[in-house]
Design goal:
four-stranded antiparallel β-sheet, 15 strands, globular, five-stranded antiparallel β-sheet, Creatine Amidinohydrolase, Pept_M24A_MAP1, Methionine aminopeptidase, protease, alpha+beta, about 25% strand, EC 3.4.11.18
Length: about 250
């Protein structure tokens, strides 16, 4: 069931999203060679809690998985999503995806970005650029009168036109009262398919784009998703609100 949010609920979601956006920008500013993903995780958790929020990912579990141990997902190079923060040291030339979720006032916000560690290759620069732009292509279709897969089609069309591939095993989602709500928002699809987009929807749109093949696999830790061919992947995400028949991005600092 797709939940349409009231004005009060939207205000709560917007507050959680504000903290998400500020946390992402803070963590992004700390990304450099020599820093560990655990250090980035601690910076994020401290900021979230000091803002009155709770890290949404910490302790989160799905059927068959252990509780996620980090406050952020930190996914490097061929790690697509759900990378577990730890002692891994960032190296020049890598890219890292940082995914942040916040719970405050019993409502969630969720967003992600990818960034280079120092100087990165031209391929990785293009991958980051195309993935981020595909997110905005998708957001532009989140208007009343369209359907969810109009978002999906826009993302896929842009990504594939630029020579990259869409991860098909993972998708965006509704967000608000729960971290993951209906509808599912794949990053590939057919125009005119899926549920109708309505005012009051809050959606987490999140392209995950591979430099090589679209296929992925999950590591033995039960969380970290990596590209099957070992080539790099990028991830960008915003929580948006559909209001006044058009999308409003809530996760902007």
């Amino acid at each position: 069931m797709i939940l349409i949010k009231s004005k009060k609920e939207i205000d709560y979601i917007a507050e959680s999203c504000r903290i998400v956006a500020e946390t992402l920008q803070l963590v992004k500013s700390k990304v450099k060679p020599g820093v560990t993903t655990e250090e980035l995780d601690l910076i994020a958790e401290d900021y979230i809690r000091s803002s009155g929020g709770v890290p949404a990912f910490k302790g989160y579990s799905q059927p068959g998985t252990k509780p996620f141990p980090g406050s952020i997902c930190a996914s490097i190079d061929d790690e697509v999503v759900h990378g577990i923060p730890g002692r891994r040291i960032l190296k020049e030339g890598e890219i890292i995806s940082i995914d942040v979720g916040v719970l405050k006032n019993n409502y969630y916000g969720d967003a992600a970005l990818s960034v280079g560690v120092g100087e990165i290759s031209d391929l990785k620069k293009k991958l980051l650029d195309v993935t981020e732009k595909s997110l905005y292509e998708g957001i532009s279709q989140a208007i009343v009168g369209n359907r969810i897969h109009d978002i999906s089609y826009a993302v896929q069309n842009y990504v594939e036109a630029n020579g990259f591939s869409i991860v098909k095993d993972l998708c965006g989602h509704g967000v608000g009262r729960f971290l993951h709500e209906d509808p599912s928002i794949p990053n590939y699809g057919i125009k005119g398919a899926g549920p109708k987009i309505k005012n009051g929807m809050t959606l987490a749109i999140e392209p995950m784009v591979n430099a090589g093949d679209w296929r992925v696999k999950t590591l033995d830790d039960g969380w970290t998703v990596v590209t099957a061919d070992g080539l790099p992947s990028a991830h960008f995400e915003h929580t948006i609100l559909v209001i006044g028949n058009r999308p409003e991005i809530l996760t902007v600092a």
